[in-house]
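Sample entry (112 residues):
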Amino acid sequence: MIYADLNLFRGIEIGMINFLYFSFQSTMNSRKTLVSIRRYFRNFWNQTDITAIILFISGMIMGNIQSESIYVAGRIFFALSIMIFYFRILQLFVISKTLGPKVIMVYKMVFS
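Predicted structure, serialized as tokens:
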């Protein structure tokens, strides 16, 4: 026969000190989380990634709506998100030793 005591916390009272300790720990963790989120959004490329993701999701939602004007706006959001994703990929290639000079050369040929 397996015995299980379902009243494990019987007779244990959470005092004010424990409550204050747990509340302090939760506020400290939330402050650390807020600091890390702020640090994440200070980087320009992280901001562009989030912008591209938001544009992509909103374009996907707007593309499923039957109204013609909202559908066109959704396609524009798709185009903007793809453009931002392409810029991000090109920025990653510029760091590469083998592809970086080629990307810079193509950029100069296109925009000159």
